[in-house]
UniProtKB/TrEMBL annotation:
<dbReference type="InterPro" id="IPR017438">
    <property type="entry name" value="ATP-NAD_kinase_N"/>
</dbReference>
<dbReference type="InterPro" id="IPR045540">
    <property type="entry name" value="YegS/DAGK_C"/>
</dbReference>
<keyword id="KW-0808">Transferase</keyword>
<dbReference type="GO" id="GO:0046512">
    <property type="term" value="P:sphingosine biosynthetic process"/>
</dbReference>
<dbReference type="InterPro" id="IPR055916">
    <property type="entry name" value="DUF7493"/>
</dbReference>
<dbReference type="InterPro" id="IPR050187">
    <property type="entry name" value="Lipid_Phosphate_FormReg"/>
</dbReference>
<dbReference type="InterPro" id="IPR016064">
    <property type="entry name" value="NAD/diacylglycerol_kinase_sf"/>
</dbReference>
<dbReference type="Pfam" id="PF24321">
    <property type="entry name" value="DUF7493"/>
</dbReference>
<dbReference type="GO" id="GO:0005737">
    <property type="term" value="C:cytoplasm"/>
</dbReference>
<keyword id="KW-0418">Kinase</keyword>
<dbReference type="GO" id="GO:0001727">
    <property type="term" value="F:lipid kinase activity"/>
</dbReference>
<dbReference type="InterPro" id="IPR001206">
    <property type="entry name" value="Diacylglycerol_kinase_cat_dom"/>
</dbReference>
<dbReference type="GO" id="GO:0016020">
    <property type="term" value="C:membrane"/>
</dbReference>
<dbReference type="GO" id="GO:0005524">
    <property type="term" value="F:ATP binding"/>
</dbReference>
<dbReference type="Pfam" id="PF19279">
    <property type="entry name" value="YegS_C"/>
</dbReference>
<keyword id="KW-0547">Nucleotide-binding</keyword>
<keyword id="KW-0067">ATP-binding</keyword>
Length: 492
């Protein structure tokens, strides 16, 4: 039998009769059907346990399915009392900020069974592309951001996860590297959870991907979706997957998240192999990210101030870059972007282990067909796999989740300072993409060998040894939970 699309109920506060209609994209609380009912007012007096309906929603009249977390019916215990239908949802403002809310209606005893079926219909629509009651493994970095991750998680995330009836296991990380160890060694990870949630900055997801890579069944383990509740100082993963750094909205997006496959990269340095999911930097960007600790008192502006100081001083970072460039003209990159925008590639392999390295490690000879660039005056070396590096830096506007490419940006310090500033100002909206003063390449493997004795290398925002490293991409190897099934960026 088809599930019912509508049900009649009564508002609790004033006993007004309403029809709750399941439309294509939203639940409509139909005012046209509203009129006072003496009969329902009669039964209202005996109900005291549920909150009044949100007047805002009644005025607004609809709740889109994405925002619906859960609905259930509290059956009547006495013949004379109606049952109570509650709908938990998030009120979402245009700037993607969410707050948890609940609306309740009284349901006549004779409609209880129809209401149960209606609820099932509502939940089906509300969880169309994703699993209900997700089993989430939440890793909380107590030192994330200003050390407020746990308090913020409890205040903004936990109530939404509870309202969505998710099954949640929370663990606090105790030291650097702890998250990787937990993920590497956890028994039954794939059987017991639907996603790993990093309540942190980008450091914990970096550890999680590296932990997954060390599992004996790494390639299979990478099918486990990873996502972020933004509680750190750098929360690029969430920005790209959700399109907002509002913690409540990010939590709603975890509840409703769609698993997508994403490219991941292997990085070899010294004698180790790592996984990187976000970015690799050397030069001004890494310097400002990791080399401005002495300016922490400035807050977020330490990065901008550090950058201005370095541009004015004409900072240079001599190095040798060897790279497999696949596309280098902006016209070509635009074409390739359109071709790969809807790419649905999923990594498959007969082996469950981590894929072999096609180009060997940083200690092997550089493949002959790679282009080598020796530079004594490089200012910026920045490679990314996601468009947003922070909320004011759309550094890689052409980046796509699984196009099989890394986006590489090179800026030389010999260009006029004015142009460097124009580029850096344009980064906020990705306008630098068209600047003729920078190189923007689509690549799938490279090596960088710094020539200075000391400096900073930032991998996914984490500090690495200042030593040569090599990176190669694995198309579609990883999985993340995205709000819409894509990265949240305007594109090119
Ligand atoms: N209990 C802990 N004590 C110390 N370090 C920790 C702890 N838990 C996690 N870490 C480490 O903290 C680092 C930063 O984590 P995260 O990215 O979550 O926060 P953040 O505020 O964005 O940090 P940062 O600004 O330092 O990059 C990670 O490398 C992680 O391994």
């Amino acid at each position: 039998m088809p599930l019912p699309d509508s049900i009649v109920g009564y508002t609790q506060a004033d006993g007004v009769r309403v029809r709750l209609l399941l439309e294509d994209r939203f639940l409509l609380i139909d005012h046209a059907q509203m009129y006072s009912s003496q009969q329902s007012l009669g039964c209202l007096s005996s109900i005291s346990c549920v909150s009044a309906p949100s007047t805002e929603i009644l005025q607004q009249n609809s709740i889109i399915y994405f925002n619906v977390l859960w609905a259930e019916l509290l059956p009547s215990t006495l013949q004379s009392q109606p049952a109570v239908l509650t709908i938990d949802y998030c009120k979402v403002k245009n700037d993607k900020k969410a707050t948890l809310d609940r609306v309740s209606f009284l349901i006549d005893v004779q409609n209880e069974r129809a209401c149960e079926a209606w609820i099932e219909n509502l939940l089906k629509r509300s969880y169309r592309n994703t699993i209900r009651n997700k089993r989430l493994f939440v890793l909380i970095n107590p030192f994330g951001g200003q050390g407020t991750a746990m308090t913020r998680y409890k205040k903004y995330s936990a109530p939404i996860l509870a309202a969505a009836r998710c099954r949640v296991e929370e663990i606090e990380t105790k030291y650097r590297g702890h998250a990787a160890e937990i993920i590497e060694n956890m028994e039954g990870l794939e059987q017991n959870y639907d996603a790993i949630v990093c309540c942190s900055g980008d450091g914990i997801p970096h550890e999680v991907f590296n932990g997954l890579s060390k599992r004996t069944n790494a390639a299979t383990a990478f099918k486990m979706p990873v996502c972020q509740l933004p509680c750190g100082s750098g929360n690029a993963l969430c920005l790209n997957l959700v399109g907002s750094n509002d913690l409540s909205f990010a939590t709603l997006s975890v509840v409703k998240g769609i698993p997508i496959s994403v490219d991941l990269c292997s990085l070899t340095q010294d004698n180790k192999r790592y996984i990187t999911f976000l970015s690799q930097a050397l030069g001004m960007i890494a310097d400002c990210d990791l080399g401005t600790e002495n300016m922490r008192w400035m807050g977020e502006s330490r990065f901008t101030v550090g950058l201005i100081m370095r541009v004015l001083a004409g900072a240079k970072y001599p190095c040798r870059v060897s790279v497999r460039i696949l596309h280098e003209s902006r016209t070509q990159i635009r074409q390739v972007y359109q071709e790969h925008k809807n790419n649905q590639y999923i990594y498959t392999s007969a082996h469950t282990q981590l894929p072999d390295l096609k180009y060997g490690t940083v200690h092997d000879p550089v493949p002959e067909d790679w282009k080598s660039i020796d530079s004594s005056s490089l200012a910026v070396f920045y490679v990314g796999k996601m468009p947003w590096m922070s909320s004011d830096a759309l550094f890689f506007p052409a980046a796509l989740p699984r196009d099989g490419y890394l986006d590489m940006v090179l800026i030389d310090s010999s260009i006029p300072k004015k142009e460097i500033f124009t580029i850096l100002l344009g980064v906020a909206e990705g306008k630098h993409f068209d600047s003729k003063y920078l190189h923007y390449y689509k690549v799938d493997a490279y090596r960088i060998e710094p020539k200075a004795h000391s400096g900073y290398i930032s991998i996914d925002g984490e500090s690495f040894n200042f030593a040569p490293f090599q990176v190669e991409l694995h198309t579609g190897l990883g999985t993340m939970l995205s709000r819409t099934g894509e990265f949240q960026a305007p594109g090119i």
